[in-house]
Amino acid sequence: MSEQGWPAPRVDGAVNGTVTVPGSKSISNRALILAAISDGPSHLTGLLEARDTSLMRSALVSLGVGITDSGTTVTVTPGSLKGPANVDCGLAGTVMRFVPPVAALADGVVAFDGDEYARERPMGVILGALRTLGVQIDDGGTGRMPYSVSGTGSVRGGKVTLDASGSSQFVSALLLAGARYDEGVDIRHDGKPVPSQPHLDMSVAMLRERGVTVDDAEPNRWVVAPGPIRALDTAIEPDLSNAAPFLAAAVITGGSVTVTGWPAETTQPGGQLPEIFTRFGADVTLGTDGLTVRGSGRVQGCDLDLSEVGELTPVIAAVAAFADGPSYLRGIAHLRNHETDRLAALETEFNALGGDVTQLDDGLAIRPKSLQGGLFHTYNDHRMAHAAAVLGLLVDDLRIENIGTTAKTLPAFPEMWSGLAG
Ligand SMILES: O=C(O)C1=C[C@@H](OP(=O)(O)O)[C@@H](O)[C@H](O)C1
Ligand SMILES: C=C(OP(=O)(O)O)C(=O)O
């Protein structure tokens, strides 16, 4: 199977159906982190069960946090944080960036490592910021994995200036733990714009829901007051970014797909999917049964700024490959720092099927061409696999190398996809 790849289902008509996706990765891992450093036990329902959340759970347990399952409820009980501990980050940005600021509150040494490619993902900005806030860190001067955090049981905190143009996760990481620092945190961003604004809003909203005072009124500045984080029983929203490939199937085949449980309001980047798919020419409605996307049978080329919703890019690129004219996806230079260099990977893999994709300084130009089948490489990137599956609906004999990489955020993806399109 691995050399041959997973045969992507090919359809010769409209894809129609209803899909229920599990919990949001980004909300799940924030809920786990915040519960772990809050003032009492929290009960979480709808928590995502996938590689990234399992790595987060193991990391927190290794620091002394209690996490137990009872039916569909996960109970997180804060404990006194301590090392020594070893944290496996896998390829999860939310683990490699969000856990070090928490480990800094532990008493003892916490060592971090991860997948081979995790060593390529930038860490220097967040490690440097933590040093400024009084934390001792050893990364051998590399600004990358592996690194260790030597905690003393408390962190001074205070003012820090950083360049978060490479990833919003550098800011979110400090926001999530900052209330537990003696002086809180006062973060200023200095550099090109910070991407992924919805994810920053998500961090701020989840802190406020737990009684933390966060001032983000001034652009590029976030001030978190020191104080307790209240425990909170909460239900996690479905992962709207993981809903994207299923909805895209309707857009490109002229079908109709409903995703259940779509929130009326959300801080997830997927909240922008209705607008994006409308731009491509689909009809989108939000009803009591969920969000329904209906393809019109025609996909319009688009010029889109995806800087706020970068993680949606691979699936959007796949939709653009079937448009009636060129598309330009902009504002996403930071995707070169994701699970793989997504701009290079999309260019290489689409073009290997006969496509015409070129990298821009900050994005991709996609000129639709007739595609032929072949083995699509995923580079251990779940969203490359989603993009390939979308292409495979309308391309003969497309095979996906390492479909198992979808386990990062949606282990059931192959069965769910076959169920909808097979
Ligand atoms: O905070 C988060 O949960 C995330 C922030 C974003 O990171 P970048 O700002 O690095 O793109 C996003 O792409 C990632 O999938 C999840
Ligand atoms: C960029 C992503 O993940 P991570 O949380 O590992 O940065 C993603 O899921 O698209």
From TrEMBL:
The active site is at residue 311. Its EC number is 2.5.1.19. One of its GO terms (biological process) is aromatic amino acid family biosynthetic process. One of its GO terms (cellular component) is cytoplasm. It catalyses: 3-phosphoshikimate + phosphoenolpyruvate = 5-O-(1-carboxyvinyl)-3-phosphoshikimate + phosphate. Keywords: Amino-acid biosynthesis, Aromatic amino acid biosynthesis, Cytoplasm, Transferase. Residues 13-416 form the Enolpyruvate transferase domain. Gene3D superfamilies: Enolpyruvate transferase domain (3.65.10.10). Phosphoenolpyruvate binds at residues 25, 93, 121, 169, 342, 383, 408. InterPro entries: Enolpyruvate_Tfrase_dom, Enolpyruvate_Tfrase_sf, EPSP_synthase, EPSP_synthase_CS, RNA3'P_cycl/enolpyr_Trfase_a/b. It comes from the Bacteria. Pathway: Metabolic intermediate biosynthesis; chorismate biosynthesis; chorismate from D-erythrose 4-phosphate and phosphoenolpyruvate: step 6/7. It holds the Pfam family EPSP_synthase. Its main location: cytoplasm. It is found in: Cytoplasm. Belongs to the EPSP synthase family. Catalyzes the transfer of the enolpyruvyl moiety of phosphoenolpyruvate (PEP) to the 5-hydroxyl of shikimate-3-phosphate (S3P) to produce enolpyruvyl shikimate-3-phosphate and inorganic phosphate. Monomer. This is 3-phosphoshikimate 1-carboxyvinyltransferase. It comes from Kribbella sindirgiensis.
